[in-house]
Amino acid sequence: MVLKKWSKVIRSDxxxxxxxxxxxxxxxFPKELSPLTNFSLDIFSNVISQKNMxxxxxxxxxxxxxxxxxxxADKFNQSVYILADERGDSLNSRxxxxxxxxxxxxxxxxxxxxxxxxxxxxxxxxxxxxxxxNNSIEYKLSLEKYLPRAIHSFKKKYTEKNVLNxxxxxxxxxxxxxxxxxxxxKLSQVLKTNDEYLNPKEYxxxxxxxxNGDRFFHSFGRLENFVSWxxxxxxxxxxxxxxxxxxxxxxxxxxxxxDFIVLPLNNYILENNEYLKSISKEYFNNxxxxxxxLLNRYNLDSNFLFAKKENISIYNQLISSGSIDTYxxxxxxxxxxxxVDNVYNQYSLHKSRELLFTLYNLTINPSNLKISFKxxxxxxxxxxxxxxxxxxxxxxxxxxxNRFFIHSFLDSLSNMYYELTNCKRVGEDLSYSxxxxxxxxxxxxxxxxxxxxxxxxxTYMDTEPIILNEILEKGIGSNNNLFPxxxxxxxxxxxxxxxxxxxxxxxVLPEVFTSELFKPYKEIIILSYEGNNHRFLQEQLxxxxxxxxxxxxxxxxxxxxxxxxxxxxxxxxxNDFNERFKLIEFKGExxxxxxxxxxxxxxxxxxxxxxxDLHLNEYMDEWEKSKSNLNVDISNMVxxxxxxxxxxxxMNIQDNKFIEKKLPINKSYLTFDNIYNIxxxxxxxxxxxKSGDYIIIIDNDEKKSLLNLVIELSNFNFxxxxxxxEYWKLEFLNYVESSNLKYSEIYNIYCSNGGDxxxxxxxxxxxxxxxxxxxxxxxxxxxKIINDGFIMDNYISIFQQIVLIRTSxxxxxxxxxxxxxxxxxxxxxxxxxxxxxxxxIYKNIQNGIYKIV
Length: 853
What we know:
eight-stranded mixed sheet; six-stranded antiparallel sheet; Rossmann fold; alpha/beta; 31 helices; 853 residues; 24 strands; DISARM protein DrmE C-terminal domain-containing protein; 3 domains; DrmE_C
């Protein structure tokens, strides 16, 4: 069988066309794509009819996703479904928009390809969409056209001809859901329905792309669960899974269970394969600079990925671990004996397990941590010992066996906590003599602060940066080049912000953050305790940067693929590896022997309660499980709240149709009473609304505010946790409505708790007119007033999110009012002057303005 070029598999030529005001850019594929991109597309187009496919590539974006989608749709006349990673440092790199936008630029030199493969988003149905509900369908497709520079007559032509909505074409369906359980639920339903638009018989969904599968499959158990689910589907659908940095065991499972072929383009393969490096460097050195930005939207790789990663090191001062490994091992082995499914206090159990893994990798002394936990179904705030004592007090609710093992587990966790707490502290010279990770970190940062480089200090808990910053200011003084930052926010920053800077990390990286090690930092320094912590870290770095045995296994997967086409003997990538492997084969054989002996020793030994035999995969599995369970618990806490509503009769100003809406009492809506004076618009809660007012309801969903939309479309370098942002406001407005207290009485309570803002400010909070308080302290006081421990524990994180949203809101505010005014008064608005996110906001609010009648 011959390996055909992908361009010969599709029915026409292909390229990209990007019109601009002064010039236009035209790309010709495959000629102008990188060698690695074309190689990937060649393999894909030849094997996907028979096999599923894995692409290992060290980036959380799969940039040629739209090319994979079009090749499949063109070849098989079937629709494509992508689970896209929504993260990105700008609008252009966030999948919901970048995939849509980049797909709209594809052409075959005669016509745009979106005519034949239009892009849709999958959305959950609203309650009032009766036509769909009557057919027992829970999801619908939503089309968002990217035609901001097109003239009105052009748009009208395609709307009237229904080209974009045409059900007689395959579709490219984008889903940015990050919850694996809900994805499986919706796919189970979508793939089984024969709805004429969702999954028609003529053009069914035949291909699923999973971008950055690491965010879903960060434990072996989750991957096994997915494999079982997919087998039960009994579907002919093909899968392409893109992994940023998978464990080899994950790949083996997929190959064995679901018939995957593997295209291994791991970091160490890109670094060490001289053939790949040479052809790629030649390509990037000769790329037309005028086309570089556009090519980056479709190329799999970039030039810096082929550089040797010699900037990463474990800090040369391994930190004394004392007895923490003993306590960790004892706690871990005891936890394995707990019957988790039959534990009554699930949240406390998962919180305590998360703490076990977190304590190894803190940037601060554990005594500085305040955590939230439930007491009698209410959230309270306290120290780790307080949490442990509270959990112990509830053990009478557990069965006898679980009570014994949980108590023993908590004793070991407590011992580990005190072993780390009773160490030397910053600013307390007479405290203790032994230095833990937080103090060694402080000494390192004190040295680095005297350099000219920016220093990012990555943390794994979102409450750490503020506390660490306070410690640094107290110990070093105000410094402009030290930036403590949560890793979830750091990965959103652009590469230009990181180039030339130094990254300091507190230990083993959670799987979802490992792509950060491939960014263009000048230096990456990782701190480690001796013992388990160092062993796990070394194992992680080995798997990322130079495990020759893993590379050999991955190359055997590539050989299996190429053997199908009689290409393996002449393939330069394989030949380069084989030559290099011969030079180190003897060393590799010795390593194999050593592993075999170790395995024999372990098999012959008794169970070690100190987890000497615990390896990185299992460690990461358990860590991720604890965090996943906690996230589900907090999300459910917000989602399951039921709030009172107020009914309103509304008239849509676009079509003059009347509807009735039940607005939640603790939501606020952008409101104005004069369509010619939008500057007076304010956010009001339903109890403040009156007949004649105008309000904006986004996507016909009374639970979605304009703020939600602005956040969704914001091109900032962060991910905003809307659960945190909305929680304080929902709870406070609920308190205001249910307590029947006057605003003046609430103000007096606020002042008695140390508040110093004016009555007018507090009244604005009570009315829901503003996004949030101007200080974190006031959020804490609000939590105290309404007796909400969750707010008191997370007030710093909530305030950080409010500041980020406020910045986003401020930057778009003026244009937002101008957009609304143009809709209300027919005042001319030059849509071509709007950037992509502004245009999408404009389209979303166009049909969402109502008058209260």
